[in-house]
Write a structure and sequence with these properties.
6-stranded mixed beta sheet; alpha/beta; 13 helices; 513 residues; globular
Length: 513
């Protein structure tokens, strides 16, 4: 018999693993500390073992029978089944969270805010990657741009919502926004940085997840394009066009001033559209009486901000006790009137490099302080890139043959998604234990194979380590033989790549300045 909570607590469903118990304990404890009720959905055998580890935490364990069994024998519950279990226990709001997500402190007012926003909606949260727990308070984290690790829903939307075969640890988060759009469910992103994750090697199986995505797309769409690529395109389009950004901000007391470099209509309009009242715009810092202001934003050219910009900065300053922040910008592709997020944003390391080398950061300073200035990246400020702008975009052809590095999930996903009409000679990886194995039917080599084949080309397809890999490759190959998947903003069917050229972009920015 289901336990029904009589208060208005938000019920979070999850599935716990028998590995990494310590990390999961820290994560689950952070949920409970914030006032969430936790329901863990596992097999009977797992529950018996898990109870001994989590005996001190008030978790309700629920045995789940319908499981997706993997090739390695692991049994994982379906997302829809977890949602059904938590929805029948909730007064109105329930949700799902991955078991290793740590939540920062959330006030009762924030929980009330979520409960209000979730009416007839799905509210999702993206995680921030950290190396150690102290990184949270130090703002030393990187946004995981293209993934969802936590979401909330109105319980009345749950029946038959996501009965599409996706299970925990599959690529469920790619299609869940698409399903919301299909059903006409309003999609909202809670921007507040509340979810954190200690980075570890990717464990999900691309082949299994890809099969689920293809079945999902075939069920709801008729098209001639590769179905996985279509799903990725829809995901990014929904993030940009259909997703409402929301942010909990407890105060409107701050007086905000935006100081602009130029009189750019789009920038000015984005400032005026702020969901925040106490703001002003000027084009010079001269004669500004900072004593009459609380937060000053120094804006760069070509920057567009979302209407949650002010609220996000105020929340971060108050929550993490900082008086000065540099905000990085993201990029949106513009092609034939259509706007969408692109590959650059999936590589936060590259985004950081572009912002630093081109001096793009927006400075937000409270009380005119620049001491202990932090740097943060959120999808609340961006620049539009015209794919036909030859000042920053190169049109190049895919090579006839190339190696791909590294030999991981991201590389396999990228090759499959783009349906590349080239010869993949093989995959390269620094992990010598992978050498001699295969990925997607191609052999994995050590990087030393390039010393014998210096006339070949290499495509870097890494989300987190592309800059480090490029530096390593430059010791062996010439620069023009190295291509980066993260710079390929678009690939036409004829193999033409719209390639973001950082050196040309830097020269263009310097000319503008």
């Amino acid at each position: 018999m289901a336990k029904h909570y009589k208060d208005d607590s938000i019920i979070l469903g999850t599935t716990l693993a028998l590995s990494n118990i310590g990390k999961q304990k820290i994560a689950v404890n952070s949920w409970i500390k914030n006032g969430f009720r936790v329901v863990a959905c596992n097999t009977r055998e797992e529950i018996e073992k898990l109870k001994t580890f989590f005996i001190a935490l008030p978790i309700e364990f629920v045995e789940i029978e319908r499981m997706a069994e993997q090739k390695d024998g692991k049994k994982l519950p379906y997302i829809q089944d977890i949602l059904e279990i938590v929805s029948c226990r909730a007064e109105r709001v329930c949700g799902y969270i991955n078991s290793d997500i740590i939540l920062s402190d959330m006030s009762k007012e924030m929980l009330d805010f979520i409960a209000t926003e979730v009416k007839n909606s799905m509210v999702f949260v993206r995680r921030n990657e950290i190396g150690q727990y102290s990184d949270i308070s130090n703002l030393n984290w990187r946004l995981h741009f293209d993934g969802i690790d936590m979401f909330f829903m109105d319980k009345y939307l749950i029946p038959d919502f996501y009965n599409d075969g996706f299970f925990a640890q599959s690529l469920w988060d790619l299609c869940i926004l698409i399903k919301c759009k299909i059903l006409g469910i309003k999609i909202k992103e809670l921007l507040n940085p509340i979810a954190f994750h200690v980075r570890h090697p990717v464990k999900w199986n691309f082949d299994t997840s890809n099969l689920l995505v293809e079945k999902f797309m075939a069920k709801y769409y008729e098209h001639n394009r590769p179905t996985y690529k279509h799903a990725i395109e829809l995901y990014y389009n929904i993030l940009y066009e259909d997703c409402e950004q929301i942010c909990f901000c407890a105060t409107q007391k701050y007086r905000c001033l935006f100081i602009l470099e130029n009189n750019e209509n789009e920038v000015i309009e984005s400032i005026r559209q702020q969901d925040y009242c106490n703001k002003d715009i000027r084009f010079t810092d001269h004669d500004t009486d900072h004593d009459q202001l609380d937060i000053v934003f120094y804006m760069k050219e070509r920057l567009v901000i979302t209407n949650m910009f002010c609220k996000m900065i105020i929340y971060i300053m108050e929550t993490f006790h900082v008086d000065s922040i540099q905000l990085g910008r993201f990029f949106v592709s513009e092609d034939k009137g259509k706007k969408y997020y692109n590959e650059l944003n999936r590589n936060i390391g590259l985004i950081e490099k572009i912002n630093v080398e081109c001096n793009l950061h927006t400075l937000a300073t409270k009380n005119n302080s620049t001491q202990n200035c932090k740097i943060a990246y959120f999808p609340i400020s961006y620049e539009r890139i015209d794919l036909n702008d030859s000042r920053i975009i190169d049109l190049i052809k895919l090579p006839a043959r190339a190696y791909v590095i590294p030999a991981g999930v991201r590389a396999g996903e990228w090759v499959y998604m783009n349906n590349l009409n080239i010869e993949i000679v093989g995959y390269i990886d620094n992990n010598i234990q992978k050498s001699g194995n295969e990925i997607m039917g191609k052999q994995i080599y050590s990087i030393r194979v390039l010393e014998k084949d210096k006339n070949t080309q290499v495509i870097i397809a890494s989300k987190y380590f592309s800059l480090e890999i490029e530096k390593q490759l430059l010791d062996i190959l010439e620069q023009h033989r190295i291509l980066k998947a993260s710079n390929m903003l678009k690939i036409d069917t004829d193999g033409t790549i719209y390639y973001f050229n950082l050196e040309k972009y830097k020269a263009y920015v310097c000319r503008k300045l």
